[in-house]
Specification:
Strand content: 25-35%
Number of helices: 2
Order of helices and strands: EEEEEEEEEEEEEEEEEEEEHEEEEEHEE
Shape: elongated
Helix content: under 10%
Largest sheet: 12 strands, mixed
């Protein structure tokens, strides 16, 4: 658990936006450059939605996968060991004319990510933050039912600075549950957030009012958060109130380990000059920090925990100290479920042998990502054992139409059937 006051400069790394099913390049109204997906995947079919929603043009095209068990995008040239945001978006839009939005699994480099339940009318996205073990990121959609065809609309990769989203273990995976700019009138993203994180405005809530910054000239971007996500806040409606319960409905859905970060900035200069606000941060009634939170006016204060065990009934509250004369405020928050540990991946000798095989046969480029993982989602023409890391035990190449001499498989020492 940590508490700090910060200000910082911003540096950028990988920033890639893929229009799945799209072709060519274009720049959207926000200034983001989008590219087609042909360089990142060799399988699937492209289509356009029939029901156009109020969404960006990128989600009006998609790529769907009617044949393989899992289908994977591979993004090369990423920074090994540095945190990256990976965001996948899905808009069914009745592209197939069947009015039957599918459900399927989403995976990243051999790790489970989420189950995607799509809709005929709404667009959905899933976001994960993790540090790749290698110089590639793979994202896969996987069929979980014979009549459910996976698809994907967009795929985005954003590299973070080393100081961002630090975790106790470098292999901790952060599955986004909430990123909220309280009191904001509009969605905050790129270019206001140079990392293109999506800060959602809070819904209308009982028991709080919105307060807006009195002087926007002091608003600037910080590494951790864009200034516009701090320009508003929520606070109790009565100036005599002494506590604020943080709205977390629908976020802590199950007993799990969570990563959270809460941001505080005074929005009224007079209140800052008068030292009017001072409050403690409590989780389930327990005070977590000795030092009280006193929101600054030209920078921000944050509290965070890398690994906090919470449940559906957990309550986070801000409670005034004895010398406070105004109630607490809250500007923004981020909450992630922590998934501990990254898959080791299939045995490296086996993977290298498969790469040699794929190098010889263009047809086999249809398969990408980890060949054995997650469990139950091997490539269609092989089987693996349950070792850690898994070994390939069977290759079933008959029926694939391969001709010529196969490469040397002697390094695949667990191979039993071919």
């Amino acid at each position: 658990m940590d508490l700090a006051i910060v200000s910082a400069t911003i540096q950028m790394g990988v920033f890639l936006s893929i229009d799945c099913g799209g072709t060519g390049e274009h720049t959207d109204d926000s200034g983001i450059k989008w590219v087609g997906d042909d360089s990142y995947i060799k399988t699937g079919k492209t289509a356009h939605v029939q029901n156009f929603g109020e969404y960006s043009q990128e989600v009006n095209s998609l790529r769907y996968f009617p044949s393989q068990k899992k289908s994977c995008y591979v993004i090369p040239g990423v920074a090994m060991g540095k945190k990256h945001l990976v965001r996948a978006s899905f808009f069914y839009g009745n592209y197939d004319g069947k009015s039957s939005p599918p459900s399927f699994d989403l995976q990243f480099y051999g790790n489970t990510w989420a189950t995607v339940d799509t809709s005929s009318t709404d667009s959905y996205y899933r976001e994960v933050i993790y540090a790749p073990k290698g110089v590639e990121i793979s994202v896969c959609v996987a069929r979980t039912s014979a009549d459910q065809i996976p698809f994907i609309s967009t795929l985005e990769i954003r590299e973070f600075e080393p100081s961002m989203y630090e975790t106790n273990d470098k292999e901790d995976v952060l599955l986004q549950r909430s990123r909220t700019a309280f009191g904001a009138a509009d969605f905050v993203s790129y270019p206001d957030d140079p990392y293109d994180r999506w800060w959602h405005p809070s819904d209308e809530m009982d028991g709080v009012i919105n307060v807006t910054r009195d002087d926007m000239s002091f608003i600037k971007n910080f590494t951790d958060i864009p200034g516009l996500a701090l320009a508003n806040a929520i606070t109790p409606p009565s100036s005599n109130a002494t506590a604020l319960t943080v709205p977390t409905s629908g976020i802590f859905l199950e007993d799990a380990t969570y990563y959270y970060k809460f941001y505080f900035m005074e929005v009224l200069e007079a209140d800052y000059q008068n030292n009017s606000r001072s409050f403690d941060f409590l989780v389930d009634g327990k005070k977590l920090f000795d030092e009280a939170i006193v929101p600054p006016y030209q920078s921000y204060w944050f509290v965070y925990d890398h690994r906090c065990n919470l449940n559906a009934g957990s309550v986070i509250s801000l409670v005034n100290t004895a010398d406070a004369s105004l109630p607490p405020i809250l500007n923004a928050m981020e909450v992630f479920k922590v998934q501990r540990g990254l898959a080791l991946g299939t045995n490296a000798d086996d993977v290298n042998a498969l790469k040699a095989l794929q190098g010889q046969y263009q047809l086999l480029h249809l398969w990408a990502g980890d060949p054995c993982l997650p469990v139950g989602f091997t490539w269609d023409w092989l089987n693996c054992n349950a070792d850690d890391p898994p070994r390939i035990t069977e290759l079933h190449l008959n029926g694939l139409g391969l001709t010529g001499t196969l490469p040397d498989f002697s390094s695949m020492t667990a191979l039993e059937i071919m």
